[in-house]
Write a structure and sequence with these properties.
With 359 residues, the protein is an alpha/beta fold. The chain has 16 helices and 5 strands. 53% of the residues lie in helices and 7% in strands.
Length: 359
C-alpha cells in the first residue's frame, strides 16, 4: 500500500489480543515517513525514523483510551493528558501492547479507560493542521472500540471525508465492538494469531531460553505474545507446581494416605487463585503425559525438566484413566472456585488419584 501510494485514509488493523498490531501500525507510520526506504522497511537512521523512535515526529499523533483525571471535564479529557505515560508504556512494551499493563499505568482499579468526547476536538484540531515535514499526517488510534458514541459521531465526518494528507490507522482487539458508523468507513485487515514457533522464537531470543523451554511456554499462550511473557514470569511458580505434581503422583502410587493428607494441606496454604492455577497445571501435565505415552512427540509441549520426569511416569497415564483424571482435576478446580472447603477438596482429589493411577 505504501509503496504504491495506495494507502486507505482509514485503515483498521484488527485481531485477537496478544497479536502485535500496534507495533505494526507504528512501523507502518514510520515507513510512510521514512526518507530512505530499504527493501520494504524503514531505514531506522534518517531524521524521520529517529523522530518516530523518540515519539517526536511532528506528523504522527496517538489516540488511546484513558481514565479521566478528577480535575478534568469529560468534554476536555484527551490522550494528551497521559502522553508521557503513553510513551513510557510503548517504550517498555515495544512489541505487544498489553491492556492489563496499561490499566496499571493508568492506576485504574475500577474505572475502565475510554476515549472521551474531548478527544474528538483534539483530533480534529491536529488533523486540520498542515503536515510539517511529510506528505501525510498519521493518527494511530489504539482500541477504537473504547470510543464513546459522542466522540465517534464527532469524528465520523473527518474519517469519512479526510483531507488528502490525513491518514487514520485504527488498531482493535475487538472489531465487532467498534461503532458500526466508524467500522463501515474503514478498510480492514485482520491479523491472524502467531504460530507457536513464532512466539517461541521471540521469547527464546529475548530471554535466552532453550528451544524446548521456549516452545513449552509458547504453546500455552495460544498465539498471544503478551501471555507468553506472563507465562514466563510465572516460570518459578510452574517449577513449584511441578514439584507438587510429582509429589502427588509418587505419593498416590505408593498409597501413602498420611503424606497425601500433608500434601493436600500444603497446597491448601496457597491462595485460592494459586490453587486453581496449580490444578490447571496438573491437568496439562496429565494430558502431556498421555500424549508422551502414545508416542506423539510432535504434539508434546513440555520443558526439559517435565520431560525428564515423563520418561518414566507417562506409562501410568493411559486410556483407562486419563479422562477420569482430567475430570477429577477439573471438578476440584470448579469446587475451589466456588469457595468449597479446600482441604477436603484437595484430599479427596488425592485419594481419587490414588485409585486411578494404577489402572
Amino acid at each position: 500500500m505504501v509503496d504504491g501510494d495506495a494507502i486507505p485514509h482509514a485503515l483498521l488493523l484488527h485481531g485477537e489480543i496478544g497479536i502485535p498490531k500496534l507495533a505494526l501500525a507504528r512501523a507502518m507510520a514510520q515507513y510512510i515517513h521514512c526518507e530512505n526506504k530499504q527493501n520494504g522497511d524503514s531505514c531506522g537512521k534518517c531524521a524521520s525514523c529517529l523522530q518516530h523512535q523518540s515519539f517526536n515526529h511532528g506528523d504522527t499523533f496517538f489516540s488511546f483510551p484513558i481514565v479521566k483525571k478528577a480535575s478534568v471535564d469529560a468534554k476536555k479529557a484527551c490522550s494528551d493528558d497521559f502522553i508521557q505515560e503513553w510513551k513510557t508504556f510503548l517504550t517498555e512494551n515495544p512489541l505487544v501492547e498489553d491492556y492489563e499493563k496499561w490499566l496499571e499505568v493508568m492506576k485504574s482499579e475500577n474505572a475502565q479507560p475510554i476515549i472521551y468526547v474531548g478527544e474528538s476536538a483534539n483530533i480534529v484540531h491536529k488533523m486540520s493542521l498542515s503536515s510539517m515535514t511529510s506528505k501525510y499526517k498519521v493518527l494511530i488510534m489504539w482500541l477504537p472500540e473504547k470510543m464513546n458514541e459522542q466522540c465517534a459521531n464527532k469524528l465520523l465526518k473527518l474519517i469519512e471525508e479526510p483531507s488528502e494528507d490525513s491518514l487514520f490507522i485504527l488498531v482493535s482487539d475487538n472489531a465487532k465492538a467498534i461503532l458500526p458508523t466508524i467500522y463501515s468507513r474503514t478498510q480492514r485487515i485482520e491479523l491472524k494469531r502467531l504460530s507457536i514457533n513464532d512466539v517461541a522464537s521471540y521469547i527464546q531470543s529475548k530471554y535466552g531460553l532453550s528451544e524446548q523451554d521456549a516452545i513449552s511456554i509458547a504453546a500455552t499462550a495460544d498465539g498471544n505474545v503478551a501471555q507468553a511473557e506472563k507465562n514466563l514470569a510465572f516460570d518459578s511458580e510452574n517449577k513449584e507446581f511441578f514439584k507438587d505434581f510429582v509429589q502427588l503422583m509418587r505419593l498416590a502410587y505408593s498409597r501413602d494416605l498420611k503424606q497425601l493428607k500433608v500434601w493436600s494441606e500444603n497446597v491448601f496454604n496457597y491462595k485460592r487463585e494459586k490453587i486453581r492455577r496449580f490444578l490447571k497445571y496438573a491437568s496439562r501435565m496429565v494430558r502431556e503425559n498421555y500424549i508422551y505415552n502414545i508416542r506423539e512427540p510432535h504434539l508434546n509441549y513440555m520443558t526439559s525438566q517435565e520431560e525428564d520426569f515423563s520418561v518414566k511416569f507417562s506409562p501410568f497415564i493411559n486410556e483407562l484413566n486419563v479422562i477420569k483424571m482430567l475430570d477429577e482435576f477439573n471438578k476440584a478446580e470448579i469446587d475451589i472456585a466456588g469457595n468449597g472447603n479446600g482441604k477436603i477438596i484437595l484430599f479427596d482429589l488425592a485419594i481419587k488419584i490414588t485409585i486411578l493411577i494404577k489402572r
